[in-house]
Amino acid sequence: MDRIKKALTEKGKKVFIPYIMAGDGGLEALKERLIFLQNSGADAIEIGIPFSDPVADGPTIQKAGLRALAHGTTVKKVLKDIAAYKTEIKVPLIFMTYANPVIAYGIEAFATDAANAGISGCIIPDLPLEEEDLVLAPFEQNDLALIRLVTLTTPKERIRKIAATATGFIYAVTVTGITGSRTKFSDDLAEFLSYVKSVSSVPVLAGFGVSTAEQVEEVCRHCDGVIVGSKIIDLFEQDNLEEMKKLILSVEKI
Q: Which CATH architecture has domain 2-246?
């Protein structure tokens, strides 16, 4: 489970993790997009698994999920696809999914198949700390990090508890609400990120609402890096790969 932490800290710079939806554009597009993001400087890549009830996702990611489902994308197909070319992917891959698909797949089978496909960790936003025992043993047995989230409204005592045994990195949610681009962050964001970083022994990455190079710089002043999803999906839709490269490389200037 230290694979993610090592990858995010060994370069000694701010981190950029793009998010893409598996199956958006067809599952055949996934490898090409992963390779492109890797070659463009991504430090890790978050892969969304389409789900019919994505409570944390905003309109852009929800639409991407619907497109992926229309292409017949399933967890099993995604894992089989990635397993076929996993040796070509050198950066950590992190699944973003929900509890229901993992349980439906079979938790032990999911953990084993994810590890065999080269997945390094999972984000399960609707799985609270108190319910983690459901997946912890099979995840640990398969060296699969469970990435925890904290939000602007999470009490400090709970943040400390979440950080105490965190693996991979902590996902600090920068907004109150769902994913999607924002024009302005809360005045409390800097204090929030600084506090999470002060109590965490793993990197702290901020996500939700980050969509411009200026926002990347603003957020990275107070944490170890950013996760960008909706903007990456939009840029793939627009086939604007040059703009995507610039956004990913914006962390190099910080």
A: Alpha-Beta Barrel (3.20)
CA 49/CA 87 separation, integer angstroms: 21
Model pLDDT for residues 95-107, shown as the tens digit of each residue: 999 999 999 999 9
> pTM of the full predicted structure?
0.95
In terms of phi and psi (left: phi > 0; alpha: psi -120 to 50; beta: otherwise), the region of 20 is: beta
Q: Is 57 a catalytic residue?
A: yes
Cα 248 to Cα 228: distance, rounded to the nearest angstrom = 9
Q: Which one from 24, 43, 57, 113 is the annotated catalytic residue?
A: 57
pLDDT number for residue 225: 97
Mean pLDDT of the chain: 94
Catalytic residue chosen out of the listed positions 24, 28, 32, 46? 46
Tokens for 145, please give them.
Answer: 């990090």
- Provide the b/e sequence for 43-78 (b: ≥16 CB within 10 Å): bbbbbbbbbeebebbbebbbbbbebbbebebbbeeb
